[in-house]
Write a structure and sequence with these properties.
Blueprint: H1 3-30, H2 46-65, H3 70-89, H4 93-116, H5 122-146, H6 152-175, H7 187-208, H8 218-245
Helix pairs in contact: 1-7, 2-4, 3-4, 3-5, 4-5, 4-7, 5-6, 6-8, 7-8
Length: 252
């Protein structure tokens, strides 16, 4: 396909994605939905999360009707993880972004199906957490492979370390009996930022061929840099929160 035609197609795709998303969100909010049971965050408020849950509801209903086990969905997410890594390693950012968002959506549906079918258990929760860590790691490793010849490699690895530390601080805190849900970049936020960053980064590459410091897909590198900084800041924020909550020398 000629470069000019690629750029035109990318522009049309970008406008279509924004138009569909904004129209869907506007129609959803116009219905004044009950968001009292939806948790939000500074980045993904209850309105956005509620909208996403509603879009996933038909799939959730279908899975419940078919009696699909939550563990099966966890294994589907696990199967997607190496595919996401390979797609990213090959530089297919657009496909990688959509696959990552699909994996994140499956992770959401899996928990909701487990609650509705009374299939939740400590064993299932542990399995889900382990698979989540693999899904996180493999996405960043795929990006690290793609950027292996430049400084983007270190940005991807820093984002990987930060992502692991965000999860580890919460897991360790809960193991010590302390709640730790604070922080800007929890897992849903990371999925959304990296997924959409990859999609729009691919479109920007076709529109303008914008590189950053010699690295291809400049917007994707910027997103990785943002994730590298913010995940590690979130891990530090969580560590400070837990340290202030745990008793130490001289405390009761």
């Amino acid at each position: 396909m000629p470069p000019a035609l690629q750029a035109a197609f990318a522009l049309v795709l970008l406008v279509a994605i924004f138009a569909i998303a904004l129209t869907s969100i506007a129609l959803y909010l116009r219905r004044s939905p009950d968001l009292s049971g939806v948790r939000g965050s500074a980045i993904l408020g209850p309105g956005i999360r509620g909208w996403h849950y509603e879009n996933l509801r038909p799939f959730e209903e279908l899975l419940v009707r078919w009696r699909v086990r939550a563990a099966t969905l966890s294994y589907v997410q696990l199967a997607l993880a190496p595919l996401v890594a390979w797609v990213y390693a090959e530089g297919m950012m657009f496909a990688g972004g959509w696959l990552l968002l699909l994996a994140g959506s499956i992770d959401i549906v899996d928990g909701r199906v487990a609650r509705r079918t009374h299939g939740g258990s400590k064993r299932g929760a542990f399995l889900d957490s382990v698979i989540d860590r693999y899904a996180d790691a493999l996405a960043y490793l795929g990006l690290a492979v793609f950027y292996a010849d430049g400084w983007g490699l270190w940005v991807a690895l820093a984002a990987l370390v930060g992502s692991f530390m965000v999860s580890y601080t919460r897991a360790r805190a809960e193991g010590l009996g302390t709640d730790c849900r604070v922080g800007l970049l929890q897992r849903p936020e990371r999925y959304v930022i990296l997924g959409f960053g990859s999609i729009f980064g691919s479109i920007a590459e076709h529109l303008a061929g914008w590189h950053l410091g010699g690295q291809r897909f400049g917007l994707v590198v910027l997103v990785l840099l943002f994730l590298a900084v913010m995940t590690n800041l979130t891990a530090v924020q969580r560590a400070r929160h837990v340290l202030s909550a745990l008793p130490g020398p001289g405390d009761a």
